[in-house]
Amino acid sequence: DHQTxxxxxxxxxxxxNCPLYVQILKPENKFHIKFADHVVCEEEFKYAMLALNCxxxxxxxxxTLLVHTSRGHTAPWEAFRQLTGTKQTxxxxxxxxxxxxxxxxxxxxxxxxxxxxxxxxxxxxxxxGKSFTYASFHAHKKFGVCLIGVRKEDNKNILLxxxxxxxxxxxxxxxYINITKEENSAFKKQEKHRKNHESKLSxxxxxxxxxxxxxASMGTVAIDLQDTGCCxxxxxxxxxxxxxxxxxxxxxxxxxxxxxxxxxACDLLSDQSEDETTPSDDEVSAGLEYAKGYPxxxxxxxxxxxxxxxxxxxxxxxCLRLDKGCQHNYYEDAKAYGFKNKLIIVAxxxxxxxxxxxxxxxxxxxxxxxxxxxxxxxxxxxxxMHFLDAICWFPMVxxxxxxxxxxxxxxxxxxxxxxxxxxxxxxxTMSAEEDYMADAKxxxxxxxxxxxFSSLSIITELTHPANMRFMQFRAKDCYSLALSKLEKKxxxxxxxLAFMFRLPFAAGRVFSISMLDTLLYxxxxxxxxxxxxRLLLGLDTTxxxxxxxxxxxxxxxxxxxxxxxxxxxxxxxxxxxPIGVYRTESQKLTTSKSQISISVEEWEDTKDTKEQFSCRGxxxxxxxxxxxxxxxxxxxxxxxxxxxxxxxxxHSAKTAEKINQQRMNLYRRSERQELAxxxxxxxxxxxxxxxxxxxxxxxxxxxxxxxxxxxxxxxLELNDIVYLIRPDPLTYVPNAGPSRKDSFCNTVGQDxxxxxxx
Length: 758
Prior knowledge:
The protein is α/β, with parallel strands linked by helices. It has a domain at 298-464: NAD(P)-binding Rossmann-like Domain (Rossmann fold). 33% of the residues lie in helices and 13% in strands. The strands form six sheets. Strands 13-12-11-14-15-16 form a six-stranded parallel beta sheet, with helices on both faces. Strands 5-8-6-7 form a four-stranded antiparallel beta sheet, with helices on both faces. The chain has a four-stranded antiparallel beta sheet with strand order 17-20-18-19, with helices on both faces. β12 (375-379), α15 and β13 form a beta-alpha-beta unit. α2 packs parallel to α14.
C-alpha cells in the first residue's frame, strides 16, 4: 500500500487532471488517496462479502458474476421469443453442456448491471410518473430486465430500490440487470418500426395513450377497463369483494402510485418491525433490548457510518473473551451461553481493521433483532485494544485465541453449534516460495473441518482461484473430473470465468479477492459499479436506499409457481425487488459414462491413457499389479502369513472368538463413525456435552448454484433462496397485512386466476 500511495501521489503531481483508479489492501490507508476518482479496498470488500455469505448464501459468487463480462452469442431465450419474436444475446458459457443446471447457471451468469436515461429508454420510458416498484415489475414482465436502482440527475447518490413511494422522473438514470445493455438489444432496433405504427394503434380518447402501453401496463393483475373513454388513463384496482368469483385474488396488483394509506413514515430512533415493537419478558429479563445508532468508535479513518444494533453500555473487555470466565460471567464455552441462534465463526490470523467490516453488515439496523447470529472471532494472535474498543458496543460479539488446526479450540468456540465457519486467508502464508502453495495449509485445514463436521457450512478465502479445485477434495470423484475438463474447455475458449462451474464456487463456498480485480476495470466504463457494489454489501448506506437480503421458499410458498408471479407478489406486498435465485439440488450421480458431462470420445481418451499408464506402472512397481499375475509373490506372502500364525501366542477358543468379534467390529466401522467417535471423546475430555454434535447431516451429495435475473417463466422449487433488495425501513414500511413475514401464505386457500387475458 505504501508503494501504491506513493505512485498515486506521483500521478496526481504530474497529471492533476488525469482520472485515477486505485486498488489498495488495507482500509486504514484509504484516507491517503481520498482524492482518487475510484478506490477499491480489498479488505473492506472481502470481509463484507464473507459476512453476507453467512446470511445470503453465495453473495460472493453473485457479486463476482455481476462484475465480470461474459462473452455472448445469439441464442433464443423462451421469454423473449414468446413476447417479441426476437433473439437476444446470451452468455456462451456451458451452452453445449448436457447438464441442465450448467445451462441455466451459465446463461444467467451473463447478466450485468447497466444504466440508461429514462426518457431515452425503450424499457422504462413509459413508466414516467409511476412508482419505482411498478416500473420494475412491468419492465421485468415485458422485457425480462430487472430494474434495481435510480439516481436523480442533480444527485450523485444511487438509490437501490427506493420503494413504491419513489416516483420515476424523465431525467432519472435507471440501473438494471440484464444480459446486454438496451442499446445493443433487439428491442432498440424495433423502436423505429413501432413508432411508425404508433399513430394507427393509438387510443384517441382524452388520455391518448397507445393501446399497447395500456396492455403492457396490465401485468398479471385484473384491470377494470369499463368506461375507458371517461378515464384519464388505465387504472389498477383490486376487484370488488362481490365479484364474479366472490373472493379476492391471491396476488394483489402492483399500483402505479402507492396508496398513501399504506405508507408510514418511520421515526429514525424507533423500531416499527413486528418483532421488536414490544419486547418479550425473556428479552427484558436478559437485557436484550438493543439501541439503534451509529457505532461510537471506528478502528480506522474513512469507514462509512452505518446505523446498527448497539448495546446501551459497552461490554467490558474481559466479557468479550468467549473461553475465559470473569467476575461478570462464568461461561467458558459457547454452549454455556445458551444462544438461541446458531453461531458464525470467523477464523483469522489477526484482528485487522478490515475485520470490523465483517461485523457491521451483520449488525445493521435493518437486520431483525431475533435473527442476529452470535459472532465468534477465532484468532491466532490476541487482538489489539483499539479493535476491542470498536467491537465492544455490538451485541453478541466474542473472540477467542486459538487455531482451526486444533480440535480442542474448535470445540470450545462452538463449532458444533455453528451455522457457518468462515476461514480467512492468512497473510503469513501469502508469501510462499511457490505461488500456488500459499493456500496449502488453509486447504488442508478446511478439508479436516469438512471431514470432521460434515454438516458445517464452510466459507473459505483463497489466494489463488485455481486452488478451489482442491476444496472438499475427493480422489475418486468422476464428476469433479468432468468439471475439470469443462473448465479446461472454457479456458481455451477465452472465458473470463473458466472456474465458474466448479461446485465450490457455484455454491459460494470459496472466494478469492483476485476475483474482484475486474471491479476496478469495469468502473472505467461504468463509474457507478463500485458504489452499487458497496451498497449491496452494506459498506455504504444512503438514506432511502435499500439493502440486500434473502428469503427461503417453503412448501407454503410453492403456490406462487413462477418467478414472474413471485416478482409481482413481492412488489405488491413488501416492495421488495428480487434479483436472483440460489438453488440447491440433490446430486444424483454415478460413475456411468452416460451421466458425466464429457463426451464419449474424451472418456475413451482418458481410459486409454489410464491403461497405458497402468501398463507402465507394472514394469516400474510390481506391488501395484495384481498378485494373480505373479504366482511367486502370492506364494511368498502365504508362507509369511503361516510363519506369523505359528509365532502368535495361543489363546482359548473363547478368547479367540472375542478377539475375532472385536476385529470384525473394527472392520465394519466406517471412517465417518471413527471421526465421530474421535470428536465425541474430545468433547467429553473437555467437559462438553456431545449432544450438539450432528453426525450424519451431510451436504456432500448436493450441488448449489445461482440464477441471476432468471426468465419470468422459471419455476420455483422447494428450498430456493431468493435474493431481494428490500426498501429502506426508515423511509418505507409495507402495508401490514395478514401475511407471514418472509413467506406468502395463500389466504384464499386455492389459487385464483388473476392473470386476465385480453
